[in-house]
Specification:
With about 160 residues, this protein is α/β, with parallel strands linked by helices. It is built from three helices and ten strands; from the N terminus they run E-E-E-E-E-E-E-E-E-E-H-H-H. The protein has one domain.
Amino acid sequence: MSVSTAVERIHVDHDVARRLGDWTAAGRFEIRARDGVVVVDLRARPERDEIELRLDLRHAVVKLLVAEDAEVDAWDLRRTGRGRTKDHGAPRLAPAAPSQRIRLHGVAHDSEIRVQRGGVARITAMFSREYLEELRRVHRQGGLPTIDDPAPAAAARKH
């Protein structure tokens, strides 16, 4: 499995940060959040890719929008306080060949990681100010929106 060498850094203090659609080609992310919310869209990543998230969270929420069959590994995430990882849409049996492997590392103090898949991830992306702005831009300039489903844009970029 290949991991891109590019690193995306997201820092949030008492705020909300959303990275939606086909926004990066990085394979590593460093997220530092204090009393904030971070939404990271990982659905546009290429097939069979490994993604690493280094987390430093305190009283924060991180929402990960992932592919339906992605594998999320939180084994190396150290939790203190009352936080937890919620992944209600995870496949009951681990897929033989997941489209993505997402590894979570770091510390989460009184923080929560919410993994959203499929239609729930799509609706989360669509109920954002960024999606409305993109629809307005697409209406003026033409084209198709990418925030609701970034996979076609990522496939076009690969070719």
